């Protein structure tokens, strides 16, 4: 069985799950892009080129790249998996019984690869040939019967490995909630992951992977804001404690705004004791240290500055901050363009968007090797290298 798991943000990356942008991005229009959580309409062919270059940069450094749609198609080889996927995809109350039955029959006849296409790119009303009954007649021609999933690109958010377990997350925005049905299916059905134990799951309170940072072995920061709810953080903490995966969870409130939708939009680890952080929030970022209590409710400490609470839990003197940008305006621009959203592929080696010139210069001054990638089209969904990657296997850091 392949090795899987992660216990830090910076251990050498060996296997990563990506999603190459596909037809789901071709569904975006100026009328639906806000609802589908994109800030623009990407040029799809260019986004694919940029993504291929990202994958190549990872492979060049010895990282195995898994593609979500390949795993999904392979998982859908089983008839039971296909049935389950079709039933959950068609559960929406907007369909009605007749259309659901019709679509169910249609999808059951499709091959695993075709089904992957429908589950990811969705089905528009006018693609149901000739219309079918009252619901298709009354819905607009461009209404989706099955919503497309353009944010699949951001594989970070729909599952997180914590040591040898994988947490299937629970996504807060309706446009994304179906993504975790697909990650759950992959981990449950794909032969590569047979026997993997999972935690959390999409039926639980909201927790998104972009909010979960494995600061050190046993220490996990969880952002709480637009996406991860307080109840989600509490549920997640309870599960990692009872599974023995961590001793401290730092619950970190973040502004409920699009620019800071996840904790990894304001900070990411680039070394065992270095974090790149948006300076405009650095002073105000707080953390509540949560620890397990024997047989009782979780123990919650008073809020402390995030960097202080993190260093204490990580048992290091200082968690060194590297600033995004140069001045407050450049920092704000580069934070928006995912300057903080780096993907460490080893201690002191991080993939970053090339456009964030000042932040990348700060990283290099601090001794971090920056692997630059283009992201002009990929960035239109508001996510950087960390958002676009789910580490499936990172080597553990050497014990000191
Ligand atoms: N971890 C991340 O920050 N992921 C980026 C998610 C972007 C996506 N368009 C969203 O709004 O959910």
UniProtKB/TrEMBL annotation:
Principal cellular location given in the protein's record: cytoplasm
Catalytic activity: L-arginine + H2O = L-citrulline + NH4(+)
Pathway where this protein functions: Amino-acid degradation; L-arginine degradation via ADI pathway; carbamoyl phosphate from L-arginine: step 1/2
UniProt entry tagged with the keyword Hydrolase: yes
Location in or out of the cell: Cytoplasm
Key words of the record: Arginine metabolism, Cytoplasm, Hydrolase
Cellular component terms per the entry's GO annotation: cytoplasm
Active-site residues from the entry: 387
Gene Ontology molecular functions: arginine deiminase activity
Coiled-coil stretches noted in the UniProt entry, renumbered to this chain: none
GO biological process: L-arginine deiminase pathway
EC number of this enzyme: 3.5.3.6
Enzyme type, top EC level: hydrolase
InterPro entries documented for this protein: Arg_deiminase
Any matching Pfam family: ADI
PANTHER family: ARGININE DEIMINASE
Family, similarity comment: Belongs to the arginine deiminase family.
Record protein name field: Arginine deiminase
Lineage: Bacteria, Bacillati, Actinomycetota, Actinomycetes, Propionibacteriales
Gene name for this UniProt entry: arcA
